[in-house]
Design brief:
With 211 residues, the chain is of the alpha/beta class. The protein is built from eight helices and seven strands, in the order H-H-H-E-H-E-H-E-E-H-E-H-H-E-E. It has a single domain, classed as 3-Layer(aba) Sandwich (Rossmann fold), CATH 3.40.50.150. A seven-stranded mixed sheet has the order 3-2-1-4-5-7-6, with helices on both faces. Helix 6 links the parallel strand 4 and strand 5. Helix 3 packs parallel to helix 4 and helix 6 packs across helix 8. The longest helix has 14 residues. The relative contact order is 0.17.
């Protein structure tokens, strides 16, 4: 039994569409990890792409620090983005709705941020995605991700094995890479790893990489 990337992304979209109500309540436990994205950015950042923006919780602290920043929010779930569109800073946000692998992110960003959104893809898939991220950043631009990582290579492979055995068993299944595997993919694209930091949430790490 197998599932294509497009099919899996559609399954994830349907899952998050259903989870929009109550999503913020669940993710309040991850606020420190979300705030860490803003703290990792240098002064003077004026344009940011939020990859997997969802309801935009991480943008609250971003706009507190950079009130005039231009943000592009990308997400596959229009239902999730509908919550973001009601936030007081929504007039500073433009929206990209669709599959990360198929949509045009735009370009020339100072930074891209992402939290809790990218732990569903294989190394080969991330290689494709991170090339898009790299190409959409300015020279010297930053990619800052706060996300779940597998604690060991064995656990990483076990998650992918379970998904391959029955991809429809769980409508939403985490398949995070290890920190080392994540950094290897980023470096293969051309990023320079600046910093890897454990967050206050178990198995969540902040990775800061530069073009």
């Amino acid at each position: 039994m197998s599932i294509t990337l497009k099919e899996r992304n559609q399954t994830l979209k349907e899952f998050f569409d259903r989870k929009t109500v109550g999503y913020d309540d669940v993710h309040n436990a991850f606020l420190d990890s979300k705030k860490a994205l803003t703290a990792a950015l240098p002064d003077g950042v004026s344009s940011v792409l939020d990859l997997g923006a969802g309801t935009g919780m991480e943008l609250i602290s971003l706009f507190e620090r950079f009130p005039d920043i231009a943000v592009t929010a990308a997400d596959i779930s229009e239902e999730m983005l509908s919550v973001l569109k009601k936030r007081p800073f929504a007039d500073h946000v433009s929206f990209v709705i669709g599959d990360f692998f198929e949509t045009d992110f735009g370009g020339n960003y100072d930074a891209m941020i992402s939290t809790s959104a990218l732990h569903h893809f294989s190394p080969e898939e991330k290689l494709v995605l991170y090339r898009k991220v790299y190409d959409a950043l300015k020279p010297g631009g930053l990619f800052v991700s706060s996300d779940k990582m597998a604690p060991t290579p064995t656990q990483q492979e076990e998650n992918f094995r379970m998904l391959a055995e029955d991809p429809h068993r769980f409508p939403h299944m985490d398949t995070p890479l290890t920190v080392a595997a994540e950094c290897t993919v980023l470096e293969a694209v051309g990023f320079h790893i600046i910093e890897v930091t454990a967050t206050s949430n178990q198995d969540y790490y902040l990775i800061k990489a530069q073009v």
